[in-house]
Design goal:
The chain has 793 residues and is α+β, with helices and mostly antiparallel strands. It is built from 20 helices and 30 strands. It is globular and about 95 Å long. The chain binds one DNA strand of 25 nucleotides through helix 3, helix 5, strand 24 and strand 25.
Length: 793
DNA sequence: CAGTGAGCGAGCTTCCGCTTGACTT
């Protein structure tokens, strides 16, 4: 019916474009890729020049048939998928799967969603570029080969259901190597000396740092002793102008980093909020590697800046991407209209929008100007110097809207008026013991930044990568409490040296990524056997070849063949020769039994073991706690694990034991479990009287919880729960209607409530599924009218 | 919901990149 059908990737994009184009255009979206290699099988015919076998993805069947219908009636089909490798492939898959005609199919591209850009693109259609399509096929096939050949090796050699891949395995490697660096890091202490002076004949104070850091306390004491008689004088005051420039507009990764730093958002949280803003038309597309702003956005920014802050705040800038892997199919992330200073929506949406608005506006603003002052202070009887620095803001420029928050970028104090040759009197000198710090653990956003620098992963995959490595059990996002540490604080006050010890908290971590034992063992295995794939530069080097393919200078199947021959060879050798890898480590000998103690990964995770499995006597096993690790656990700690379960006494003629289970430490009595109070009870020292107390507390709680029990074959219980009274029957829970007094219910009345719920709701009344598996059986999905808004026409 | 860890073998798991859905309590 309609003359023109335009196909884009995203439905939100389709909606806006439809507004720009006239009535004779219908704009639909493909929802990304419509086909992929077979999900279960390899999907690649190795012996037939690596011919890929594509299938329409199950969740895309509907949209594909809808598009098929529409293309039949359209005079011209415009394929407007993104202008990057994946977009070109999507165009070709559409062309192929929809069985389109070359004569009336046109490929168009645009980098910004503006009326001008789209009309221009319609005027300049082209053909699908097969070289680029082939480069995408090579990328896809290589990733499938690597993933589907490496993962099964792990199932055999380490543990079932594990996975490996070009991207995720490097992400894990980064974390493992950083963790090792941290483990082997030896913290050293040094002393930082600073002094507070009184400016002679004046009331000003001046704080300055000594140019020298001392390694030992002896040096500090000697210096302070010396300082008792020294004279201090200003020898130099240097003033110089400095400036700071705004950062480029947001890309996916910089948005994730900044939202993490400023709001503590996880990367997936950032993406979910951004998606909302995008879908409601408030920001441009949020998965991008481009820092480019459209002409429209730049002129809008100009107007906003000039009319709100004045001409002197404007500085038009074009940013260029630094990362080589960028494909720049979209704009930077920016508000669709910079005239909108804030938006409605959830708190998170408001916050993130404001951040994007500020960053975009700031990028078109003048740099901030400062005057920096350095003051050098000499010491009469020493070659060392004191140095004081200060910074005065002369012109705020972009800082008017965008605060940069960097580590250690504490607001520098204003310096008092001071001139050269001024004499200074020492008020106090402090020497504080400090410690060198290990390199930091990665946050989610920091890992994304690192991956981007390495050219690994794409804006659309940063968040999924983080969740995959956690789902596989390679990585844990955790907080760690810090430890107390003493440090030396030595002062010279009133010509007296005061030597003091203070304490501080160190090593606290918040929302950091830690590799697990499994992650470490898998990584070591891959590094040992597949160094070249796990290499930080592997992606970069294959990307070069993909580029060659895209330029038509290299045949994709040849490239794959060269890679696969040597890779597959290594796969076979590894399957054949390498040992099962369990991260086994011998810790020593158990004095009590004389048997060897070691740790390894077992079927259920990391564990400790006393004695070999081929010994006559069965070995004893114990699970490591969450805080313990194969690489760092000591013999003593491992042996401690075997002190449980422990019999602590008797109560009501039944034994009381204490142990640690899957959900933490517990007391067991008469086959019932009672959790220990976190932070109060210790399973290793818990005594009989306290154990009984815990049992009684739980019983009291249960008494309050239970309203009534009908003791039938299948007991019916009326209980008090978090959401009020309910009926528990056959492991399922049923709500009691509000107008019913629970105490008054009879057995029959309960059954009535139960049956009422079961009947109309059918089988899916109450299944306590924890994981959201997206297995969809189409067969009986017709029940509900699940049409979306189909209100146009 | 909490204890387990030998081996036999069925049948399962897995990659990266594009996109947005839809269950309740």
């Amino acid at each position: 019916m309609e003359d023109n059908l335009v196909i884009v990737e995203s439905p939100a994009k389709a909606k806006t474009i439809e507004k720009f184009l006239g009535k004779e255009y219908v704009v639909k979206s493909s929802f990304g890729h419509i086909r992929d290699l077979s999900k279960k099988k390899l999907g690649i015919d190795i012996d037939n020049n690596y011919q890929p076998n594509y299938e329409v993805s199950p969740d895309k069947k509907k949209i594909v048939s809808e598009l098929k219908k529409l293309t039949k009636n359209a005079k011209t089909v415009w394929i407007a998928s993104d202008e990057d490798r994946e977009g070109e492939a999507i165009a070709w898959h559409l062309f192929d799967e929809l069985k389109l005609n070359k004569d009336n199919t046109k490929r168009i591209v645009f980098h910004e969603i503006t009326k001008k850009a789209i009309l221009d693109s319609i005027k300049n259609p082209r053909d699908i570029n097969n070289d680029i399509v082939n480069s995408q096929q090579a990328r896809r096939i290589l990733d499938r080969l690597v993933g589907f050949e490496l993962s099964p090796i792990l199932w055999k050699k380490i543990k079932p259901s594990l996975s490996a891949g070009r991207v995720q395995s490097v992400a894990v490697r980064l974390l493992v190597e950083r963790e090792r660096e941290i483990m082997s890091f030896n913290s050293e202490s040094f002393y930082k000396v600073s002094a507070i002076f009184n400016v002679a004949n004046n009331n000003y104070e001046l704080k300055a740092d000594l140019s020298k850091r001392f390694d030992t306390k002896e040096e500090v004491l000697k210096f302070l002793e010396n300082s008792k008689t020294s004279k201090h004088k200003v020898v130099e005051v240097i003033k110089k102008p400095t400036k700071k420039s705004p950062l480029a507009p947001f890309t996916t990764s910089t948005l994730q980093q900044e939202a993490s730093r400023k709001f503590n958002f996880s990367v997936s949280q950032t993406m979910m909020v951004a998606q909302k803003l995008y879908e409601s038309g408030k920001i441009t597309y949020m998965r991008t590697d481009s820092v480019n702003l459209s002409d429209f956005a730049m002129s809008e920014a100009k107007n906003v800046i000039v009319s709100n802050f004045g001409d002197e705040y404007l500085k038009v800038r074009k940013f260029r991407t630094k990362s080589k892997s960028a494909q720049e199919a979209h704009e930077a992330i920016r508000p669709t209209s910079l005239n909108k200073f804030e938006v409605s929506g959830s708190e998170a949406e408001k916050k993130l929008y404001k951040l994007i608005w500020k960053r975009t506006i700031a990028s078109q603003m003048a740099e901030a100007k400062f005057e920096k002052t350095n003051i050098n202070i000499s010491i009469s009887n020493s070659d060392y110097k004191y140095l004081a620095t200060g910074e005065i803001l002369k012109f705020d420029g972009f800082l008017k809207v965008y605060e940069i928050l960097e580590n250690g970028d504490v607001a520098k104090s204003l310096l008092p008026p001071i001139s050269e040759n001024d004499d200074l009197n020492v008020n106090i000198i402090n020497a504080i013991q400090r410690f060198t710090h290990h390199p930091p653990r990665y946050t989610e956003a920091a890992l994304v930044k690192k991956l981007e620098e390495l050219g690994i992963g794409r804006p659309s995959t940063y968040a999924p990568i983080i969740s995959t490595v956690q789902k596989r059990g390679y990585v844990l996002k955790e907080n760690r409490e810090g430890e107390k540490r003493n440090f030396n604080f030595i002062s010279l006050v009133n010509n007296n040296i005061v030597d003091d010890i203070k304490t501080e908290i160190t090593g606290a971590e918040k929302s950091k990524l830690f590799p697990t034992d499994i992650g470490i063992v898998v990584n070591d295995f891959l590094v040992e056997n597949f160094e070249d794939i796990i290499d930080f530069n592997f992606t970069a080097s294959v990307e070069k070849e993909f580029d060659e393919i895209a330029k038509g200078k290299l045949v994709w199947s040849k490239m794959i063949d060269k890679f696969y021959k040597s890779f597959h060879n290594k796969v076979e050798i590894t399957l054949e020769n390498s040992e099962r890898k369990t991260g086994e480590r011998k810790l020593g000998v158990d004095k009590a039994s004389g048997k060897e103690v070691f740790v390894r990964i077992g079927r259920y995770g990391p564990m400790a073991q006393i004695g070999k499995s081929d010994d006559e006597e069965k070995p004893r096993y114990a699970k490591l706690t969450k805080e313990q690790h194969l690489e760092t656990i000591t013999l003593k700690e491992a042996l401690d694990l075997f002190r449980l379960p422990r019999v602590v006494g008797k109560y009501e003629d039944k034994e009381i034991t204490v142990a640690i289970g899957r959900f933490g430490p517990y007391v067991k009595h008469d086959n019932k479990f009672f959790s220990l109070k976190k932070g109060i009870d210790d399973p290793y020292t818990l005594r009989e009287d306290r154990a009984i107390e815990i049992i009684e507390e739980k019983r009291e709680y249960d008494r309050k919880k239970t309203i009534k029990i009908f003791d039938q074959d299948v007991p019916v219980k009326i209980l008090n729960g978090r959401w009020g009274p309910y009926i528990s029957y056959n492991k399922k829970n049923y709500k009691i209607p509000k107008d019913v007094v629970p105490e008054s219910l009879s057995y029959e009345a309960c059954l009535e409530i139960i049956n009422k719920v079961v009947k109309p709701k059918n089988t899916k009344a109450k299944s306590k599924t924890k994981s959201k598996t997206t297995v969809k059986t189409k067969s009986k999905a017709k029940a509900k009218p699940k049409k979306k808004t189909k209100k146009k026409e």
